[in-house]
Structures
1.
Amino acid sequence: MGYPMAGHLAAAGHRVRVYNRTRRRAAEWLEEHRGSCVASPREAAEGAGTVFLCVGNDDDVPSVVLGDDGVFAGAAEGAVVVDHTTASANLAHELQAAGDERNVGFVDAPVSGGQGGAESGQGESADAAE
């Protein structure tokens, strides 16, 4: 769902940097939309005020957010990370705490509507943040 969601942001005139664990998908996105592709989640977050992510599940989120090449490593103090993955509340609490340690906001914002909603721009998000 992240592919079309990022496309809508680019179409609305936002500067978008895309990272995908599958480089081919990032290259395909760049052929269709204005923006840039980067080599790591950290690079995607560097200099951004807001970072959106949408990956498969609880197991995928930490691999993109945490660690030396993760979003939190590249996010500046005061940035906000918005996670559109449908993940567990426990993981959201863990990431909120990890963000707090870095003065980076974290918003748990799963999206309903599936792939069709994301493609049409009609998906809805239920957001939770402290």
Note: The radius of gyration is 14 Å.
2.
Amino acid sequence: ASVAVAKAIRKAFDLKAELKWPNDVLIKGRKVCGILAEMEAEMDRVNFINLGIGINANTSTSQYEKMATSLKEELRKEISRKQLLNSLLKEIAKQQALLSSMKTVGSWRNKLAQKLLTFMNRLS
């Protein structure tokens, strides 16, 4: 989900969104999105996945300016949440199709890691 969010932000708003693997998306080192996931699975199948995606779209983050940002603050104008949602849904569908076509999550993660920076690598 974080990969889809980062790609959606890049495509829709031309901002350099980066991953802080596995559940945060950053712009210029500040958090713009957090993701929470819950899954129930058995040995041979996934019963359900609940996914919560929180994106700072048109919010003010002034009280947390060192840690957080929003798309509005980065672009210096309000953004279309409809445009954001449309871009995000397209990217989620693309990532799901990519994941379904690969044999392991590791190969999917390795392929995407080549395209997006991770916060941990920047620190080391």
Note: Residues 2-123 form a domain with the BirA Bifunctional Protein; domain 2 fold (CATH 3.30.930.10).
3.
Amino acid sequence: MGKPAMLDFVEGKVTIPYLLLHQRLENKKELEELYKKKLDDKQEKWIKDKMKETNALEDTISLAKNLGFEAINTVKDEENSETLVVIMKSMIEREF
């Protein structure tokens, strides 16, 4: 369960996948014109296809996992950190 795909984009929230996508697109205007708008199926498909073509989503997941490992290494030896480490490991191992 989770929120619907594209909700952040439609609500005007800037996220790493969209920042990477924007950075990597040759024609940024097409993406910018869809920002904060209700998307139809064709527009959603275009964004999803571009996310795949540019590896924006894959690179975001990789970045998040690397930051998670960094967080674990930072707190793992601290007192009472076991719960934080378990939570972070479960987030890292989560499939998207």
Note: The two ends are 12 Å apart (CA to CA).
4.
Amino acid sequence: MSPRILNGRRVYTSYLQHLMEMPRFAKGYRSLLPLFPHAIESLDLSSYDLILSNTHCVAKGVRKKPGAIHVAYVSTPMRYIWDMFGEYFGRGKTGFLTTLAAKLVRKPLQRWDVRSTAGVDHLIANSRFVQERITKFWGRESTVIHPFVEPAKFENRFEAPKDFYLIVSAFAPYKRIDQAVEAFRRLDLPLVVIGKGQDEAKLKRLAAGAPKVRFLGGVSDEALGEFYRKAKAFVFPGLEDFGITPLEAMYNGRPVIAYGKGGLLDTVTESTGIFYPEQTVESLMEAVRMMEARLGTFRTEDARARAEGFTREVFRRKYAEFLTGVLPKELPAKN
């Protein structure tokens, strides 16, 4: 097998990579979840003095040599074994055997998830919401450094909005695209939905009685930027750890309608969007009506300015400052 190369550097993978290349597991990687902890612990990092991990599942569980320093950037503790188990494995979400298997491995994975943080010296959360979850589930303190939007993907201009609202999302159950489809069906307002995922067939069936709801699948970055610029507003009905797409919408000058919990509380403000208090169709409908009445009060310049506070340059500066503050002046010399 030829070595994998990323940005000119060789990539070393666990044994799960070989399983993923088998047709049986190519689309069903979730069935390998019980093996994830062992796979990450099997990686040999004994020659490294500094480990920087980016984790939403098990990457923080790598083993290190005595004296090495591990800094973990945390997108979230595993949602599907903690507070959002029902969103992934509740009634009607998966088959009986999958749900049964998930229930059997949930407690062991929770114990491993907590235990594996002992090898992490410093935790970075990607939002205040994730910071709270780290404290709740792991009993650890963390520092917040937000992710970034990529302005280079989009043209540096604004356009007059057209008569449609926009969603850009993976079609996973916890994203609650179903609530948005139902809300816009009842309101009889145009909604464009860009994305793909496991709930696609279900969502399209739900939209069968909503002729103004359009599913476009995946689109190019150029087309995506055009949809962002021309939308009345961006709709985000899910409970998200951070949420990049609302920032992309704001960078393109558009206001956001969002469920008022989660990572978006760090990014969307009163001058750049509207929050609704309950994750229900009715609450979302009321927020859309409010946006219809207030659309002219949101300025494209305010949305862009807010998004520009979350760029790659800002992230790099804050991350470098954090590392400077926690690392020793000199790392141990190699033997």
Note: The chain has two domains: 4-148+313-326, 151-309.
